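#struct-pred
JK: can someone run the complex with adenosine-5'-diphosphate? inputs below
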Amino acid sequence: SKPDNSSPLLDGNAMVAKALARAGVDRMFGVVGIPVTSVATRAVAMGVRFIAFHNEQSAGYAASAYGYLTGRPGVLLTVSGPGCVHGLAGLSNAAVNAWPMVLISGSCDQKDFGRGDFQELDQIATVKPFSKFSAKPTSIKEIPNCVFQVLGHAVSGRPGGCYLDLPSDVLHETITESEAEKLLLEAESGWPQPNAIGTVGCSEIEAAVSLLRHAERPLIVFGKGAAFARAENGLRKFVESTGIPFLPTPMGKGLLPDTHELAATAARSLAIGKCDVALVVGARLNWLLHFGEPPKWSKDVKFILVDISKEEIEMRNPCLGLVGDAAKIMEMINKEIKNDPFCLGKSHPWVEAISKKSKENVSRMEAQLAKDVVPFNFLTPMRIIRDAILGVGSPAPILVSEGANTMDVGRSVLIQTEPRTRLDAGTWGTMGVGLGYCIAAAVASPGRLVVAVEGDSGFGFSAMEVETLVRYKLPVVIIVFNNGGVYGGDRRSSEEITGPYKDDPAPTSFVPDSAYHKLIEAFGGHGYLVGTPSELQSALAESFSARKPAVINVIIDPYAGSESGRMQHKN
Ligand code: ADP
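RT: done, structure tokens with the ligand placed:
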């Protein structure tokens, strides 16, 4: 557009930054470079906090987790071509976990596309499998509308990933401020709002409550969709008024405290194997829940599914499906129950059976945990970490967990008492998420302690981001379970160690006793090397109270874990 003397000009970079800030974006994650550096600096000038990473993969994982933790789209900014491809890691992770996120990538000049321009790629086609909605402004005037559309689509219906493509020529166009303002107002008024209500009606709620009321062995299962919906109050009211035992999925842990007397976590096999009616709230009947099928579940179990996604419910074909927001539906269910209350009570045979089994399993585990095994197995350090985390009190630290054995053992030993305090490999079993998730958690809840408990392999994916922790002074303590490899040690049988490269290290192994704690010291952070209970206790006490970036390198016996954690059947 022609310059106009009465109103100052702004370019495409400033237009993008302005639209993002106006749409409520307050944090961005990414890696800058041609052509998007100025998008980042302009955004900072608009009051957006930009967290600059070393690697788009890790920044993308951060953006996806930020979306989950805050309920607002996490935004990842990358350069074109390879930057966009690295960013796909985060976008796909958001898509699979149903978390709101927007990937924004610069792209090559529109007129040079197709003749080998710098970092050229058809990015709209590339992101397609992982994007709910993609937009590409072809002129500066389309920027505000595109920005508002991608952000709106990321949170509407089932949350997920969206994509915004920014051609470099569009970023270099200019427009007058007055015209920009007009376009921003138009974009704001046409913004798709998140679905306020589902399609569920009173008769469906009555039917759900009637099924639960007449069940002999009812169970409620909830997952990270319920956590995303902030359904904790409704869930607590439901469990406490009906006395129905509950089972959280790994990331549903903490919606109700793991220590609650109706928690069936330690009696999981019994609870899912024997329940006759299961109310499943914001959790998919996918591999994590054994597809809702025998032999883990009884073949006669009646499922009542609560999900924001109609397609999800239709695919699972449950006895009853309630489409809508988990918090709202729990409120409707609680209201219906209040009209004619029922409660199983402690002496109900089902409640008693679950409680008995839980107590047995817990005391068996406690006996294992009570031993101080040195060199460390997984259990001894996990117990010490559990107690240190519990000692922090409220607000409870946000826990990030990944790795095979480390994540498996951590899931059963570590105790979650508050909602949305556990981030792990999730639906996709994504490894390498740890550092990104830690940074997202620290940025989403300023001041709150973040603790990662991860394997050396998970840590290694993006260990360079310890510099990012130090640079932004984030209160993150990374505990590395260092067993010298993926699953730990060289597990090959003697028949397998043959051929010309037999003297190479095993594909599962890393340098034994690597000094991971020194990586963070290179940037001025605090590193600890520990191998005994007292060393671990003092490193935790010091780093938790300092609330400064730290890495605790915990040396674990390389033969303590098992291959694939507890997923050998998939290997
Ligand atoms: P988990 O891994 O904890 O089992 P999943 O990611 O498999 O959880 O399932 C979460 C489900 O929650 C998804 O099917 C998603 O559509 C759904 N969901 C997302 N937001 C909401 C919401 N606000 N209310 C109800 N369900 C939701």
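RT: quick notes.
Residues 97-98, 158-159, 223-225, 228-229, 249, 251-252, 282-284, 286, 288, 306-309, 312, 325-326, 427 surround adenosine-5'-diphosphate (CB under 6 Å).
The first helix runs from residue 12 to 22.
JK: thanks, will look after standup
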